[in-house]
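Form 7-S
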Amino acid sequence: MNEMREVEVTVIGAGQAGLAAAYHLRRTGFEPEHDFVVLDHSPGPGGAWQFRWPSLTYGRVHGMHALPGRELTGADPARPSSEVISEYFTDYERAFDLRVRRPVDVRAVREGGNGRLLVESSDGTWATKALINATGTWDRPFWPRYPGQDTFRGRQTHTARYPGPEAFAGLRVVVVGGGASGTQHLLELAPYAAATTWVTRRPPVFREGPFDEDAGRAAVALVEERVRQGLPPKSVVSVTGLPLNDAIRQGLADGVLDRLPMFDRITPDGVEWKDGRRVSADVILWATGFRPAVDHLAPLRLREPGGGIRVEGTRAVVDPRVHLVGYGPSASTIGANRAGRAAVRDIRRLLAEPAGEPVAA
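Output:
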């Protein structure tokens, strides 16, 4: 489509961060489809949650924080989180009349002149005065490369494609990755797989005791410092460690979470180390995380030499019209809510400046 439309603000992505931003735009006087538009490439509401594996039930979700203005209550903890949260997001979009357009693929964001950015998408081009990028990470799973990887005769998959533990029944599985997903996969797979092996680049750090507000602020500050320096963001979990709960303790006691250092190469039948140790495998499951999905912003040249986008608050330092929410320190659900509010506050100031047009309260 070549249709060109003008709006004050374009929101890309309708996960937690995008919906939080749209909510704050709505409640401060912006009208959907007139003053702002929300573009989402997913087939339905739910953000990345709609793609989670069925065995990840709502009761096992770690740290799901409600969207602003509407609590999630009465959810059955035994239901798949993909169903519970997709229904919640559907209700949320309707309740606040956010009018999310989907499925819409955003291909590029470019300079448009006259103070506007051009958002090129499968739904036409939007000329916008400000951009809230809330595209998350789910669409960019990180697959490391190791010698011999192409010779492996078994199956390689990633957390992004994890179908649940039943698909691995009777198989020998090597799980790679020291984050929350890796430990969750191992604990789930143990009753089904013929054998599991856990390998990580660094020894996992398990966190004892409560994770209070002070600890949370300190962790977020470490991640925030990286994006201020223009470095690629790390996850909050990478600096907090893994919570030592009852399931983890049992996994450690049973030997399921008996970690090995990272292997050196992949063979046709498994993995091996320089010291000659070998492990046979039918499947290598890469629980190696995700990277920010920001390639569509490349024409704006926002990246720093360090490889990341330098951000102050939520605002891209190179271009103050661009805000990144759900990026770096705001990648948690509660962080995404706060980032959405902060981005809207900044954008209102930007639009009220002499070069822009006043925004109605």
